[in-house]
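Below sits my pick:
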Amino acid sequence: MISSAGRAQMNAVSRLIAKKADVLVEDINVAKLTIGKLNLSDRVVMADVATDSEALYIACTPADPRGRKYADMFSEGIAKLRASGALATILDKYNLSDWAAPQ
């Protein structure tokens, strides 16, 4: 099953390949995943990559005591996954790299 968002990216890449679009502006990770799923890595060229990125946050409400607990659980879980190498394994599956690793 592909989500509607996933279909949108696949349609955008398909339009690029069909020369119905000249450029696709997309998050690098989303683009790599979509192009990989479509087996089009040999037909798509990354012309440029933005050097500035926007941070992505997961927010938990401070109004509920569970908010801090969930935030801490998430941070600790990511740290454990990174330390064990499991995070790299998960990210590799999607052709992604660790956002905290030196580039």
